[in-house]
Design a protein that fits this description.
With 109 residues, the protein is mostly helical. The chain has one domain. The chain is 74% helix and 0% strand. Helix 3 packs parallel to helix 5, helix 4 packs antiparallel against helix 5 and helix 6 runs antiparallel to helix 7. The chain starts with a helix and ends with a helix.
């Protein structure tokens, strides 16, 4: 089983504390934990992703968190994504936010 699959299993088993600890690790660990949290309709995963998004300045981490937030389809992410879109000048981040919101709302904006 690959490292990435181990992280996916943690998420499937709802081992949020373990994933949260991984999100405090190396960049590679953080990215795998963030990807694993892209689970539809799982609020705890959404909360972990929002935490990474708001606490981190690393562009790659932000993009991964935005992408995974879109996969959660959680309406609670919409406000945070909207705030971030207004707060950034980075067109790649804005584009990723639009894609995530499209997945959440199921329609184009």
């Amino acid at each position: 089983m690959s490292e990435s699959e181990k992280y996916q299993k943690m998420a499937e088993r709802k081992q949020w504390r373990k994933l949260q600890k991984k999100m405090a690790g190396t960049k590679e660990e953080r990215l795998m934990a963030i990807a694993a949290c892209g689970i539809p309709y799982e609020e705890e995963a959404c909360n972990l992703l929002i935490g990474q998004l708001t606490a981190c300045d690393d562009r790659e981490i932000k993009l991964a968190a935005i992408q995974s937030l879109g996969l959660t389809r959680s309406l609670s992410a919409v406000e945070v994504l909207s705030w971030l879109a207004e707060d950034t000048d980075d067109e790649t981040i804005k584009s990723a936010i639009c894609e995530a919101q499209t997945k959440i709302w199921g329609r184009k904006h």
